[in-house]
Amino acid sequence: MTRAQIRLLAVACSAVAVVIAAMASLNTALPDIAVDTGATQSQLTWIVDGYTLALAALLLPAGALGDRLGRRGVMIVGLIVFAAASLLPLVADAPLWIIGSRAVAGVGAALVMPSTLSLITAGFAEAHRARVIGIWAGVAGSGAVLGMILSGLVLEYASWRVIFGGSAAIAILLVVLSFTIASSRSTQPLPFDYGGGILVVLAVGLFVLGVMEGPHRGWTDVVTLGSMIAGLAAAAGFVLVELRSKAPLLDVRLFRQRAFGVGAAGLSFQYLAGFGLFFLIVQYLQLVLGYSPLRASLALTPIFLVVMGLSLAVPALLTRVGIRILLSAGLALIGVALILMGLLDADSTYVEVAFALSIAGVGVGICTAPATHAIVTNTPEDQLGVASAVNDATREIGAAIGVAITGSVLAAAYGHGIDPVAPMIPEPARSAVQDSLAAAIQVAEQAGPQGEQLAELAQNAFLDGLQQASWAVAAILLVGAVISAFWAPRRS
Asked: What pLDDT was estimated at residue 208?
């Protein structure tokens, strides 16, 4: 590996780490943001979801732009947009301004993510691609955990605004360093598919919007159902347009290749489980075990270390074992980890938590790189940006679905467990207790001796929801493992 290639790999991996860390880093800061800005629960949700929605919707068009205009240039523009948007919350106090800045940062992130993977894929010979893709996949797979750990450290000693300032500073540094790496683009650039671009933005954006709104509005709500149905209709239109186009944004026939299709599905399963797991475990650590935000973030270290370690070893295994075994075994291990999570209770120790997280880390570590490798190596060189965007979009869609499933199951089970005692709680405390365990604990702390019983009941209701949500996602992952065992080819 030459110095230029090392520099390319370092810049690309750093860039993807920054934009993925930004997805999860604010979760631990939301209580502080609410206090300082007066944001409602709905606004807090959109401070997180606005970024994810913009990112997911624009990935495919952004990847195609990189193929046509140059991947380094598109990445630099994305980093500049991301940095500028991250600076706004340093001076803005209004929640709507913060939501808007996060959405714009998501636009920048959409330009960055596919460019990073396509740059390193084009910048290395085929003999070395499995290794560098594995490193990139390890960074991408553990970026969310890294973001939560760093944000926990920041919040222990400084304001939540430092998280935004730090993200902007790193992005600006990466803009400068990006001028030291080589660019690449399609050798036969085709006209941009505007029709396909509009349809895929609508398809992904509307579907993800519906999935995000489901846990809050209800799955039968007009906005939820309407968004999801409209998104699926736009997706069907996108497929029809792409099949007839002479220069499609995405050649949907690529999904006929078993390796490409199973790689995309595998990543969706992984991120569905991963973000569902984070959603549950952080609340468990803070609300049941009583961890501080910093301690809860540091408690996730096992999964980060295991994923990063395996990202270096798995590429060598891929050539010997093949994608079928690695992908199906990885998904099965993540499923086992979720089953173990469902067994946690108020008396569980951190050793039990770390054991479950480590198993999840092994599962993610052995199947992320093979799935990514299957996508990018089964796509023509001229469409690496689009292939990278497919890789990224499947992750974002899976993550949104994972949080929606776990959030809905947890909310339903918690509500079922707390409803029998709700009539005995006076308003306005009643609605707060019914809303979440965090609110119930706050009410219990102010209720004197009777508060202990309320806190225990609410905690038990939460643990019931944790178990049901964990096992529901575990079942999905185990089904995914079986499908992969039969569908995936032996080699990618």
From this structure: 87
Distance from CA of residue 228 to its chain's centroid? 19
CA distance linking residue 23 with residue 52, whole number of Å: 7
How much is the pLDDT for 123? 87
- What is the number of other CB atoms lying within 10 angstroms of the CB of residue 193? 22
The predicted pLDDT at position 449 comes to 66
Residue-wise pLDDT for 457-472, tens only, equals 788 888 998 999 999 9
Half-sphere exposure of 367 (CA within 13 A, CB side): 37
**What are the helix and strand counts (H, E) for the chain?**
18, 0
Q: Are 255 and 261 in contact, with CB atoms under 8 Å apart?
A: yes
Helical H segments across 218-257, by residue range: 222-244
Single-letter amino acid code for the residue at 298 = L
Q: How many CA atoms lie within 13 A of 356 on its CB side?
A: 23
Where the chain has pLDDT below 70, the residues are: 41, 421-429, 431-436, 439, 442, 444-450, 491-492
Nearest to 372 by CA among 202, 189, 120: 120
Check if the beta carbon of residue 68 is closer than 8 Å to that of residue 186.
yes
* DSSP symbols for 93-152: -SHHHHHHHHHHHHHHHHHHHHHHHHHHHHHS-HHHHHHHHHHHHHHHHHHHHHHHHHHH
Per-residue HEC secondary structure of 427-489 comes to CCHHHHHHHCHHHHHHHHHCCCCHHHHHHHHHHHHHHHHHHHHHHHHHHHHHHHHHHHHHHCC
**C-alpha 215: how far from its chain's center?**
17
Instruction: Say if CB 148 and CB 282 are below 8 A apart.
Output: yes
Q: Which helix (H) or strand (E) holds 391?
A: helix 384-418
d(CA 176, CA 179) in angstroms, rounded, equals 6
Residue partners of 199: CB distance under 8 A and separation at least 6? 234, 235, 237, 238, 241
Secondary structure element (H or E) that encloses residue 366, with its range? helix 350-377
Instruction: Tell me which amino acid residue 197 is.
Output: G
Q: What is the DSSP secondary-structure string of 164-192? A: HHHHHHHHHHHHHHHTTS-----SSPPPP
Provide the whole-model pTM. 0.86
d(CA 54, CA 44): 16
Q: Position of tokens 């173990």? A: 340
